[in-house]
Design goal:
Blueprint: E1 8-10, E2 15-16, H1 17-25, H2 31-38, H3 48-64
Antiparallel strand pairs: 1-2
This protein binds FE2/S2 (inorganic) cluster.
């Protein structure tokens, strides 16, 4: 399911959508940041397009609600 936050996005490095969103909430601003902090997308790179989509969705929502950018809960 696309909206299941616990689903694995990166099978190579066992990174879930929830973990990607957590680093975005902590201040990551790009797919490169997500890759640096989680290692997602640094193996076969098959998941990079999905990471891009999660990042773009988060940044679009953050533009509407700036508080999303400063939520440090994990
Ligand atoms: S599935 Fe993410 S790097 Fe391979």
């Amino acid at each position: 399911m696309a909206n299941n936050p616990g689903r694995l996005v990166c099978l190579c490095n066992h990174v879930t959508a929830k973990e990607i969103v957590a680093v975005l909430h902590a201040g990551a601003l790009s797919t490169a940041d997500v890759q640096e902090f989680t290692s997602a997308g640094t193996g076969c790179t098959r998941c990079v397009r999905e990471i891009d989509a999660i990042v773009e969705n988060h940044l679009a929502n953050a533009a509407k609600d700036p508080q999303l950018r400063f939520d440090f809960e994990f």
